[in-house]
DNA sequence: CGGTGATTTGACAATATTCAAATTCGGTGG
DNA sequence: CCACCGAATTTGAATATTGTCAAATCACCG
């Protein structure tokens, strides 16, 4: 009998945010064999060009996928939080076309592709759910294309913060409209396709508008409706199952 | 016995570009029930907010997925060509978070979700292949984030043209480094997050550099190596099975 | 406290946008 | 076959947004 892994709690919470799980499915997820690991801040978890035979579940921390252009500029492609399998696509695209890096120290749990495949064979609905998860991933990429391509800097930043709040709330990491945002303005700049200087100015403006406030590394949303309006934010693209309090 | 549908040739060619198909799989694809339809230029095929129960195979033409921002600006998210199932994601994300529109008159073949599900049940490898296809879709979105977020306009346009050439060549729509590009500069602008005026200037520069030439609506790549270099183009992210002549 | 990294500020430059008008292209009808 | 029409492309000038560089201040951690 395999052990029950407490690290899967985050994963189960995440999957429950996008679909319903049966007790059998939950139990099967809890029995997934895991290889635990911690990585320091600014370390690559998987690098562009690598051939993957396992997927990386973020148990705790804050990670991102990114690419470096020929000109040496970094573009962050997505942020990943507790419960995310950040490189689920490696199941069918074994060579990495981007890197996965830790933005702060992270607790990780690696799952062998073979174990995932066995799980999906035994529980086809979980297979569909994992597929759905990668499709939501893609929906987020699409919104980022819109954000970076067509929204001015202030709107862009508001939108990104809205997305983070909703995603973090889905896995119960938001309390009273406040959450940990343990990244630098330079990281945010690389996510939004802006310079760090400009992010700083836009961040100040969001604060002057009374929409947000920083208390150290925790971000408090002071005016959720205002932030959503400023960010033109519509959470449909996150395809959450529980649509409460959006 | 179901009929064999010639419209599936494009789909089969496309799928063969990203994986190998067995004769049985090919035969099963050819028997897929199709609803044929044609749409005029600038018509929506599926609109944001719609609930989908079928997927749209592009048999011929040129389509795009797009979003309109609150400020009324359009961001094109992807271009779709012969052989693409442009909204395969609707299989697991039934409400559309973006629209699918025809850029020129298109021949379409709609496939019911139920028929696709039956096909995948009978041929699990095809299920994996469709999943893989949506993952490549996501990989393209990621590259577009990089393109729009971190590459200057000239590089951005070169990269987009490289991508189109490689994708079109994979379905045998490129002859002698030339292909049909039946879209306006305004369409390209909306794909790259630029203004139409700037696209015009950048297009002129690519021509002055001797990298490309237009003959009406057909684009001829005069210097493929140069265009790849200018566009910082690495086709890995397209995850093609046949890597010849990249 | 001291030092390192993050944030903030200011001045200036570069890139891209907007607006408006001119030109070219492609198709259509006389 | 040519004239004409609307759409697409091209051009120019002025403007806006964002980037770059450099320095100053702030904040956290040992």
From TrEMBL, chains A, B:
The keyword NAD does not apply. SUPFAM superfamilies: cAMP-binding domain-like (SSF51206), Winged helix' DNA-binding domain (SSF46785). Residues 151-225 form the HTH crp-type domain. Pfam families: cNMP_binding, HTH_Crp_2. It comes from the Bacteria. Keywords: DNA-binding, Plasmid, Transcription, Transcription regulation. InterPro entries: cNMP-bd_dom (IPR000595), cNMP-bd_dom_sf (IPR018490), Env_Response_Regulators (IPR050397), HTH_CRP (IPR012318), RmlC-like_jellyroll (IPR014710), WH-like_DNA-bd_sf (IPR036388), WH_DNA-bd_sf (IPR036390). The keyword Transcription applies. This is Crp/Fnr family transcriptional regulator.
């Amino acid at each position: 009998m395999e052990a029950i892994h407490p690290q899967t709690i985050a994963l189960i919470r995440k999957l429950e945010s996008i679909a319903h799980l049966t007790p059998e499915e939950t139990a099967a997820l809890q029995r997934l064999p895991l290889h635990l690991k911690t990585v320091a801040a600014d370390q690559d978890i998987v690098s562009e060009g690598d051939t993957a035979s396992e997927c990386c579940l973020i148990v705790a921390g804050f990670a991102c996928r990114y690419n470096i252009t020929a000109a040496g500029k970094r573009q962050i492609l997505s942020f990943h939080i507790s419960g995310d399998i950040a490189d689920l696509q490696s199941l069918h695209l074994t060579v990495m076309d981007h890197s996965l890096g830790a933005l702060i120290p992270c607790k990780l749990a690696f799952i062998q592709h073979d174990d995932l495949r066995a799980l999906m064979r035994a529980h086809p609905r979980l297979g569909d759910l994992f597929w759905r998860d990668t499709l939501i991933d893609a929906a987020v990429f699409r919104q980022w294309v819109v954000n970076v391509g067509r929204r001015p800097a202030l709107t862009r930043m508001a939108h990104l913060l809205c997305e983070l709040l909703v995603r973090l709330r889905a896995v119960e990491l938001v309390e009273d409209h406040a959450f940990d945002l343990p990244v630098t303005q330079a990281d945010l700049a690389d996510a939004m396709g802006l310079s760090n200087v400009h992010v700083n100015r836009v961040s100040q403006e969001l604060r002057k508008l009374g929409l947000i406030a920083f208390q150290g590394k925790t971000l408090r949303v002071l005016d959720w409706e205002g932030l959503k309006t400023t960010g033109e934010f519509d959470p449909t693209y996150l395809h959450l199952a529980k649509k409460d309090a959006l």
